[in-house]
Amino acid sequence: MPVYTSVLAKEDGFWRSLNIFLIWMTWYSQSFFMLVIMLNFIIAVITSTYAKVITLQKIISYKHKADLNEECYELLALLGFNEEFKLIVFSNSKEISMMEEDQMAEILMSLKKFITRENKELR
Fold this sequence. Notes:
By secondary structure, the chain is mainly alpha-helical. The chain has helices at about 5-10, 15-55, 55-80, 95, 100-120.
């Protein structure tokens, strides 16, 4: 138990008990409110991080597919099969295959434009 030297110096028992009670009540209320505020802060941080990851999910998926394409190209180069062409492999989940054809065509067109732009920069 903490030592209350300035509070215990008083002679009156009621005021001494009231001061000790107020000190402990202040400590409990401060701890409770800090707990609530910190939990709300943690929830907000986790929610914003989750939203950011969900928005980047498609980009990460395409990066993994590009890595797969590069690995297939290197394997074919090692075996001597890639002298005339480069290989692009697309693998889709069931959710992507259920997309409307317009959305899929739009994604493929933007990917095609990106590839042609990158090939022009390499030449």
